[in-house]
């Protein structure tokens, strides 16, 4: 059996610094200048850990350097490196040294596409990739439904239904696949959005295709669902409940979403729809903040975090709000996390738990359990959180 692995080395780099994505060289350079650290290789390693006991039963095929080989070897595998063309997809493959391509070179979408195309034609039995919606889009453009594919979530935008709920869950699904367990294979949507309009506060998504994805119960995420129509009145009731309980002197960190925006509206303050903003009961403290800025603000003041689940998926941390980093969550404390949601969003989950994927397993475990969710004015339900 052959398993392919492709890592997008810069996936998710714009999340913690509030850039809402990682597409484009300019955004990537801006993220690095702001102190962002790449996360995709570390998250790929979490998935590979589940495969280590099975390493003698399959061959791991991966591009060189940061696109897979380096992490695979660090995890204890002996991967078969895929040579990438040095000057472009039409040229002959050449060996590479340090880095994802060659010395002083960086990866591009063309490298992902070339690698995926090569693996689909080999073909590998399962293609694992670490990235976000943009990476899924690149892979689907050449793979389609030819071979099974599974996403290791590592991006900022993870709206597509081709990703596991967590890197470890991706490893568990792949391990079950390698062991020959009977898994259902479903065609899942690849969805991406326009990052420029997203940064401006407008969400415009588009269906780009489908990938065949192996499914293990409660290990594969759903696609993002839109907020239910006619939610304004119910969101206002939630906002009234939250604002009436706000304490003087405390900071309130509001995550992205229309439900949290209703809270800012109730206070009479502006809210960035897809950003993370900070308020007191009396004033706006900071809009569209990064993880580093949040830690600065928390240095000497108590705070609460207010988040709402992503529709259809149920994530409250780790999808689109990476500015609320594990360090921020630890500083605030579990007891000071407020979850708000329209009841329709919870009902749409059909009993599935809310999810967290902060990037820090210890923080995920801290958040696991049960939390109250405000669903109306003086109306709460207790809901399970799964790490």
Description:
With 387 residues, this protein is α/β, with parallel strands linked by helices. The protein folds into 2 domains: 2-215, Probable inorganic polyphosphate/atp-NAD kinase, domain 1 (Rossmann fold, 3-Layer(aba) Sandwich), CATH 3.40.50.10330; 232-386. The protein has 13 helices and 16 strands. Strands 10-9-8-11-13-15-16-14-12 form a 9-stranded mixed sheet. Strands 3-2-1-4-5 form a 5-stranded parallel sheet, sandwiched between helices. Strands 6-7 form a two-stranded antiparallel sheet. The longest helix is centred in the N-terminal third of the chain and has 13 residues, at 109-121. The protein is elongated and about 60 Å long.
Main structural class: alpha/beta
Main sheet attributes: strand count, strand direction, barrel closure: 9 strands, mixed
Quaternary state, please? single chain
Provide the CATH top-level class of the largest domain. Alpha Beta
Distance between the termini: 30 Å
